[in-house]
Amino acid sequence: MTPEEKRKAYYSIPSAVRKESGEMKVFMEFVAAGHLNIDPGTPKNEQPPLPDISCSVGGKQYLFELGEITDEELAAEIGRSLRTGAVAGGAFSEEEPLVRMILKKAGSTYRTDGAPMGLVLHYDKQYPFAPAEYLDRHLAEIALALVPNGPFSRIWIYDGWTKAILWRGTP
After folding, report:
1. pTM listed for this prediction
2. In angstroms, how far is the first alpha carbon of the chain from the final one?
3. What is the mean pLDDT of each run of 10 residues along the chain (171 residues)?
């Protein structure tokens, strides 16, 4: 199959299906990297107002909301490149996408029916800009300030490039 045929086949799949498939892929990689004890066969995609993924941990329901950390212009350029095969590039913001995603997710409303919910922020299209020490020093306070007042019982930052957890925070 040529690259053009692969591209056409990919974009023939409905965008909602591509989104769910991508979310589950990121979630399962995150679970492996974080050594989470998810009950086998329980992760499933959900629809709003529920968070993105539900699963069981030790027989109890747990919910996860995912958010990709990426500069929006960079994401648009990558999307155009994938659709057309054209090479693209340019400058992008490093810190703003992370802060924007934390604030967006903290300000959202979710139906949890009392189940605990974690937030998994992840890098996929954009390479992480900061080592864990930077996150601990500058963004840990922001994330932890949101946890007691927001819906999340725990927040993780996952790097899809290296398949590693960069940071985790709990109240």
Report:
1. 0.81
2. 50
3. 84 90 97 96 97 96 94 66 65 69 85 94 80 60 61 89 87 56
